[in-house]
Amino acid sequence: MAISYTKISSVMGPLLYMKPIPNHNIKNGSIVRIQTRDGDIRTGQVLTVSRELVVIQVVEGTFGMSLGTTKITFLDDIFRVGVSREMMGRRFNGLGEPIDGGDPILPEELLDINGEPMNPVCRAYPRDVIQTGISSFDTLMTLVRGQKLPIFSGQGLPHNKLVAQIVNNAKVLSKEPFVTIFCGIGLLAEQSLYFQKKFEEQGATRVISFINLASDPTIERLLIPKIALTTAEFLAYKQDMHVLVVLTDITNYAEALREISNVKGEIPARKGFPSYMYSDFANIYERAGRIKGKKGSITQIPVISMPNDDISHPIPDITGYITEGQIVLSRDYHQQNIFPPIYPLSSLSRLMKDSIGGDNTREDHADITSQLYACYAKALEARELESIIGKESLSDNDKDYLTFAEYFELYFINQGESERSFESSFNVAWRLLSIMKKSELIRVKKENIHKYYIENFDPETFTKEKAWKRHIRE
Questions:
Q1: Within this chain, do residues 18 and 156 fall inside the same structural domain, yes or no?
Q2: What does the CA dihedral 180, 130, 146, 301 come to, rounded to 10 degrees?
Q3: Model's pTM, two decimal places?
Q4: Are 183 and 245 in contact (CB under 8 A)?
Q5: φ and ψ at 166, to 5 degrees?
Q6: 359: in domain
Q7: Residue where one domain finishes, among candidates 62, 77, 92
Q8: Other C-beta atoms within 10 Å of 457: how many?
Q9: Cβ-based neighbours of 186, under 8 Å, separated by 6 or more
Q10: 288: containing domain
Q11: The pLDDT of residue 427 is above 90
């Protein structure tokens, strides 16, 4: 039964404060319809209920609301979003409403945006891979269906370009249905247009976009990831699809959380963020996964812009505790015009070891990964030694490692915007490993060396091939 009330105690930012209504049970999370003096109808949600106070967040903002004339109606319902398979290839705002000029969506179901708690006992262990088309990503820190694998970036680094590439190129190796959900949180207008242009260039009919602009109300930034994940749960667990959800930027979400917390007068924790930010992040990240008996899956790639490139900042720090690995972007790589600037020695995927090889990727995948890491780590040591004693004083072995590092960065990491399959990435990796003597490949099985090692490989082949490809494009 709906309850109406007109006596608001105060308005602060996007929040309304009022005293509880006697003999009426108002619940946390319930929906509120708000009518202003001008007849404007807005939507709100109950944030806090106590004996002294009821706090309501207004989705569209509190501008123009007055204390004596605003009418509050409490609805006996929670925040729901309409979902449908017709959402494929469409673009929506932070409330799940179409903004691409297309026809309205006829929802197949109305679902609670908070989802349903997933029983840990019912979780299935992720074992199948997703191909992103990026060599360093696919080879060294492979993405697994049902995994949550964040990208740690910084201001000025090209994470938006990387995200667009992943969204356009991500695919599963089987013929099972696959869809990508892009969730933009607090984007600038030019960033939104950039993503829209990139998706349209690729004819991304399997991409669902949810866009919240920096100019939109703060509350929308707290709702949009839940709406995107509710849509993902419908497609994954009721339509048997594999869903990749890309959330960018979680830092904007955390800033909105801090802003609302400060307005509510809550006691801040680290860096002014609320103490419950860990559980709030967990509510988002833990909605990824696989469920026993269900064919579909939800995989998450959240993007975090680390303030001042500080990986110990509360936002990346908390994210790292909850998720299963991280992809770290390097500012040094970016300054050398290496794209994507994924730094391998700081990045990892904790679930890839049980998912690669055999029918999933290739039998030599694990060997390639281990040996590339080992060679690059030794190559960086050789570079430090070179800076002290000079290249002429290095052994032939150390010079091989220097050559390996140079070509590894220029032709494996520095892939550009092209797309590579697992097979192509492995072939490039074996060319790099063939720069080294066989005796140095101690992490590779002998049968794989016999099968894939290239005798007398000339690393200049990379340069010649790149020049030829550039000539063809021109």
A1: no
A2: -60
A3: 0.92
A4: yes
A5: -65, -45
A6: no
A7: 77
A8: 16
A9: 212, 213, 214, 221, 249, 252, 253, 255, 256
A10: 81-354
A11: yes
